[in-house]
Amino acid sequence: MRAPLGDFDDATPAPDCLGLLTAPVADAVRAWSNDVPADQILYVDTDPEIADTAAFVEHYGAGLLDASANCVVVAGKRGGESTLAGCLVLSRTRVDVNGAVRKQLGARKASFAPMDTAVGETGMEYGGITPIGLPAGWPLLVDAAVTGVPWVLVGSGRRRGKLIVPGKAFAGLPGAVVIEGLGV
After folding, report:
1. pLDDT band at residue 55, thresholds of 50, 70 and 90?
2. What 3-state DSSP class applies to 28?
3. Which of 17, 26, 81, 101 has the fewest C-beta atoms lying within 10 Å of its C-beta?
4. Contact (CB, 8 A) for 127 and 93
5. What is the rounded (10 degree) CA torsion for 154, 90, 106, 133?
6. Rounded distance, CA 39 to CA 165, Å?
7. Closest CA to 150 of 5, 15, 2
Protein backbone atom coordinates (compact mmCIF):
# COMPACT_ATOMS: atom_id res chain seq x y z
CA MET A 1 0.00 0.00 0.00
CA ARG A 2 1.23 3.51 -0.78
CA ALA A 3 1.56 5.97 2.11
CA PRO A 4 -0.68 9.07 1.83
CA LEU A 5 2.37 11.29 2.46
CA GLY A 6 6.16 11.10 2.39
CA ASP A 7 8.56 8.98 0.37
CA PHE A 8 8.10 5.60 2.05
CA ASP A 9 8.54 2.26 0.31
CA ASP A 10 5.46 0.72 1.85
CA ALA A 11 2.66 1.45 4.33
CA THR A 12 0.92 -1.30 6.27
CA PRO A 13 -2.28 -1.00 8.31
CA ALA A 14 -1.17 -1.13 11.96
CA PRO A 15 -3.54 -4.03 12.83
CA ASP A 16 -1.62 -6.12 10.26
CA CYS A 17 1.83 -5.53 11.81
CA LEU A 18 1.31 -5.51 15.58
CA GLY A 19 4.58 -7.38 16.10
CA LEU A 20 6.50 -4.31 14.90
CA LEU A 21 4.98 -2.11 17.62
CA THR A 22 5.77 -1.87 21.32
CA ALA A 23 3.33 -3.72 23.58
CA PRO A 24 1.39 -0.61 24.72
CA VAL A 25 0.93 0.60 21.14
CA ALA A 26 -0.06 -2.84 19.85
CA ASP A 27 -2.54 -3.21 22.73
CA ALA A 28 -4.06 0.21 21.91
CA VAL A 29 -4.46 -0.74 18.25
CA ARG A 30 -6.08 -4.07 19.23
CA ALA A 31 -8.54 -2.27 21.54
CA TRP A 32 -9.07 0.66 19.14
CA SER A 33 -12.38 2.47 19.66
CA ASN A 34 -12.52 5.66 17.59
CA ASP A 35 -14.55 7.25 14.80
CA VAL A 36 -11.54 6.52 12.56
CA PRO A 37 -11.16 2.77 11.82
CA ALA A 38 -7.96 1.11 13.10
CA ASP A 39 -6.94 0.06 9.59
CA GLN A 40 -6.46 3.76 8.75
CA ILE A 41 -3.52 3.83 11.18
CA LEU A 42 -0.60 3.06 8.89
CA TYR A 43 2.86 1.84 9.86
CA VAL A 44 5.87 2.82 7.75
CA ASP A 45 9.34 1.40 8.30
CA THR A 46 12.01 4.04 8.85
CA ASP A 47 15.70 4.15 9.65
CA PRO A 48 16.14 4.62 13.44
CA GLU A 49 19.39 6.51 12.85
CA ILE A 50 17.42 9.38 11.32
CA ALA A 51 14.45 9.47 13.70
CA ASP A 52 14.97 13.11 14.69
CA THR A 53 12.67 15.49 12.82
CA ALA A 54 15.17 17.50 10.72
CA ALA A 55 17.10 14.49 9.40
CA PHE A 56 13.90 12.52 8.96
CA VAL A 57 12.21 15.20 6.85
CA GLU A 58 15.31 15.63 4.70
CA HIS A 59 15.38 11.90 3.95
CA TYR A 60 11.67 11.03 3.65
CA GLY A 61 10.25 14.22 2.12
CA ALA A 62 10.23 17.94 2.81
CA GLY A 63 6.43 18.04 2.93
CA LEU A 64 6.49 15.94 6.08
CA LEU A 65 7.42 18.88 8.28
CA ASP A 66 3.89 20.28 7.98
CA ALA A 67 2.35 16.85 8.62
CA SER A 68 4.56 15.65 11.50
CA ALA A 69 3.70 15.83 15.18
CA ASN A 70 5.76 15.17 18.29
CA CYS A 71 4.44 13.54 21.44
CA VAL A 72 6.27 14.49 24.61
CA VAL A 73 5.72 13.53 28.24
CA VAL A 74 5.35 16.33 30.77
CA ALA A 75 5.13 16.33 34.54
CA GLY A 76 2.86 18.79 36.32
CA LYS A 77 3.52 19.35 40.01
CA ARG A 78 1.30 20.82 42.69
CA GLY A 79 2.12 20.39 46.34
CA GLY A 80 3.77 17.00 46.71
CA GLU A 81 1.91 15.40 43.82
CA SER A 82 3.03 14.93 40.24
CA THR A 83 0.81 14.29 37.21
CA LEU A 84 2.21 12.85 33.99
CA ALA A 85 0.59 13.72 30.68
CA GLY A 86 1.25 13.33 26.98
CA CYS A 87 1.32 16.43 24.78
CA LEU A 88 0.93 16.28 21.00
CA VAL A 89 1.94 19.27 18.88
CA LEU A 90 2.97 19.79 15.28
CA SER A 91 6.73 19.36 14.84
CA ARG A 92 7.23 22.93 13.70
CA THR A 93 5.96 24.15 17.10
CA ARG A 94 6.93 23.55 20.70
CA VAL A 95 4.74 22.67 23.66
CA ASP A 96 3.63 25.65 25.77
CA VAL A 97 4.65 23.91 29.01
CA ASN A 98 4.56 26.94 31.31
CA GLY A 99 1.27 28.28 29.94
CA ALA A 100 -1.26 25.90 28.39
CA VAL A 101 0.06 22.68 29.96
CA ARG A 102 0.43 24.06 33.47
CA LYS A 103 -3.05 25.59 33.31
CA GLN A 104 -4.71 22.44 31.92
CA LEU A 105 -3.09 20.20 34.55
CA GLY A 106 -3.86 22.64 37.36
CA ALA A 107 -0.18 22.49 38.25
CA ARG A 108 1.94 25.05 39.97
CA LYS A 109 4.94 23.95 37.93
CA ALA A 110 5.21 21.90 34.73
CA SER A 111 8.25 20.58 32.91
CA PHE A 112 9.29 17.89 30.48
CA ALA A 113 9.51 14.55 32.25
CA PRO A 114 13.01 13.07 32.57
CA MET A 115 13.85 10.59 29.80
CA ASP A 116 13.96 7.57 32.16
CA THR A 117 10.52 8.49 33.53
CA ALA A 118 9.02 8.99 30.05
CA VAL A 119 10.42 5.69 28.77
CA GLY A 120 9.70 3.72 31.94
CA GLU A 121 6.13 4.91 32.34
CA THR A 122 5.10 4.61 28.68
CA GLY A 123 6.91 1.38 27.76
CA MET A 124 8.05 3.14 24.58
CA GLU A 125 11.48 4.10 23.26
CA TYR A 126 12.79 7.63 23.65
CA GLY A 127 12.43 9.39 20.30
CA GLY A 128 9.46 7.23 19.33
CA ILE A 129 6.85 8.06 21.98
CA THR A 130 3.40 8.19 20.46
CA PRO A 131 0.00 9.27 21.79
CA ILE A 132 -1.44 5.89 20.82
CA GLY A 133 -0.98 3.58 23.81
CA LEU A 134 -0.12 6.06 26.55
CA PRO A 135 -0.90 4.77 30.06
CA ALA A 136 -4.56 4.63 31.06
CA GLY A 137 -5.63 7.59 33.09
CA TRP A 138 -3.06 9.99 31.64
CA PRO A 139 -4.35 13.20 30.12
CA LEU A 140 -3.40 13.56 26.45
CA LEU A 141 -3.22 17.22 25.53
CA VAL A 142 -3.61 17.65 21.77
CA ASP A 143 -2.98 20.92 19.98
CA ALA A 144 -6.07 21.76 17.91
CA ALA A 145 -3.85 22.30 14.85
CA VAL A 146 -2.95 18.58 14.85
CA THR A 147 -6.58 17.53 14.48
CA GLY A 148 -6.95 19.71 11.38
CA VAL A 149 -4.18 17.98 9.41
CA PRO A 150 -5.52 15.26 7.07
CA TRP A 151 -2.67 12.79 7.76
CA VAL A 152 -0.21 13.13 10.64
CA LEU A 153 3.11 11.35 11.03
CA VAL A 154 3.87 10.39 14.66
CA GLY A 155 6.12 7.96 16.49
CA SER A 156 5.31 4.27 16.59
CA GLY A 157 6.54 3.62 20.13
CA ARG A 158 9.97 2.70 18.76
CA ARG A 159 12.69 4.75 17.09
CA ARG A 160 12.33 2.49 14.06
CA GLY A 161 9.08 3.09 12.23
CA LYS A 162 6.39 5.76 12.30
CA LEU A 163 2.62 5.83 12.25
CA ILE A 164 0.56 7.85 9.78
CA VAL A 165 -2.82 8.67 11.32
CA PRO A 166 -5.76 10.86 10.25
CA GLY A 167 -5.42 14.02 12.37
CA LYS A 168 -9.02 13.90 13.55
CA ALA A 169 -8.36 10.51 15.22
CA PHE A 170 -6.25 12.10 17.97
CA ALA A 171 -9.28 13.93 19.44
CA GLY A 172 -10.89 10.54 20.10
CA LEU A 173 -7.98 8.90 21.94
CA PRO A 174 -8.43 8.00 25.62
CA GLY A 175 -7.89 11.02 27.86
CA ALA A 176 -7.63 13.42 24.91
CA VAL A 177 -8.27 17.12 25.50
CA VAL A 178 -7.98 19.32 22.41
CA ILE A 179 -6.45 22.71 23.24
CA GLU A 180 -6.05 25.79 21.05
CA GLY A 181 -2.51 27.16 21.34
CA LEU A 182 -0.87 24.14 23.00
CA GLY A 183 1.83 24.37 20.33
CA VAL A 184 3.55 27.75 20.04
Report:
1. confident
2. helix
3. 81
4. no
5. -10
6. 10
7. 5
pLDDT tens string 71-90 = 999 999 999 899 999 999 99
Give the whole-angstrom CA distance, residue 13 versus residue 122. Answer: 22
Count the neighbouring beta carbons within 10 Å of the beta carbon of residue 49.
Answer: 10
Q: Provide φ and ψ at 19, rounded to 5°.
A: -65, -15
Distance CA 25, CA 91 (A): 21
Average pLDDT of the segment spanning 17-42: 98
Q: Tally the C-alpha atoms within 13 A of residue 73's C-alpha that lie toward its C-beta.
A: 27
**Ordered structural domains, the chain, with CATH:** 12-179 (3.90.960.10)
Nearest to 88 by CA among 143, 145, 158: 143
User: Counting Cβ atoms within 10 Å, is residue 54 exposed (0-12), middle (13-18) or buried (19+)?
Assistant: exposed
